[in-house]
Design goal:
By secondary structure, the chain is of the alpha/beta class. It has a single domain, classed as Ribonuclease H-like superfamily/Ribonuclease H (Nucleotidyltransferase, domain 5, 2-Layer Sandwich). The chain is built from nine helices and five strands, in the order αββαβααββααααα. It has helices at 2-6, 47-60, 71-77, 79-92, 124-127, 129-152, 158-161, 167-176, 187-192; strands spanning 8-14, 23-29, 63-69, 100-104, 117-121. The protein has a five-stranded mixed β-sheet with strand order 3-2-1-4-5, sandwiched between helices. α2 packs across α6 and α3 (71-77) packs across α4 (79-92). It is globular, with a radius of gyration of 18 Å. The relative contact order is 0.21.
Length: 199
């Protein structure tokens, strides 16, 4: 039983709220023999702290996985279902299947075909260390993806706001309209679509 209890994966996401870019999920199985100090909810950490901890998490845990759902999947499925899809992909990407999965929030992805149990933990990103570690990896990887998208679409400031609904982002949407990585199913993006024939 103690061995099974070791193989518990924590899962969290980053990027449910932004107007652009993918939603990213991470799954982490901690190694109790190699603790990572300073792990907590990614929202409570500065970017440099997240980067440093992400490197330590990757090198010290039993296994980890990062996955995402892209903008097309978000628009097709809705953001909740796309988030759950990204979480499933992250769990399936682990190099060894866990016995139990703890998910941050109040919804669990469908993990049919896997021999494990699943538990939703409200506030898990602050209460469960494996979920906190997953939140850090998901945030670091999504921020890196948004910096790459900023190079491809430099008019929108993705490197600064990471696709979130900031005044700068709204101004860019008003000025340029949405780009291919904007979530057209989100109301502010739909509102920025110009009618045909408009300049």
């Amino acid at each position: 039983m103690s061995l099974l209890r070791q193989w518990v994966a924590g899962v969290d996401e980053a990027g449910r709220g932004p107007l652009a870019g993918p939603v990213v999920a991470a799954a982490v199985v901690l190694d109790p023999r190699r603790p990572v100090r300073g792990v907590k909810d990614s929202k409570l950490l500065l970017p440099a702290e997240r980067e440093r901890l992400a490197a330590r998490i990757e090198s010290r845990v039993h296994c980890w996985s990062v996955a995402w759902a892209d903008v097309e999947e978000i628009d097709q499925l809705n953001i909740l279902q796309a988030t759950l899809l990204a979480m499933r992909r992250a769990v399936c990407g682990l190099s060894r299947a866990p016995a139990h999965v703890q998910i941050d929030g109040n919804c669990c992805p469908v993990l049919t075909g896997l021999s494990l149990t699943v538990e939703a933990v409200v506030g898990g990103d602050r209460a469960v260390r494996a979920i906190s570690a997953a939140s850090i990896l998901a945030k670091v990887y999504r921020d890196a993806l948004m910096r790459r998208l900023d190079i491809r679409y430099p008019l929108y400031g993705f490197a600064r706001h990471k696709g979130y609904a900031t005044p700068q982002h709204f101004a860019a949407l008003d000025r340029h309209g949405p780009c291919p990585v904007h979530r057209r199913s989100f109301a502010p993006v739909r509102a920025s679509l110009r009618p045909a024939g408009m300049p």
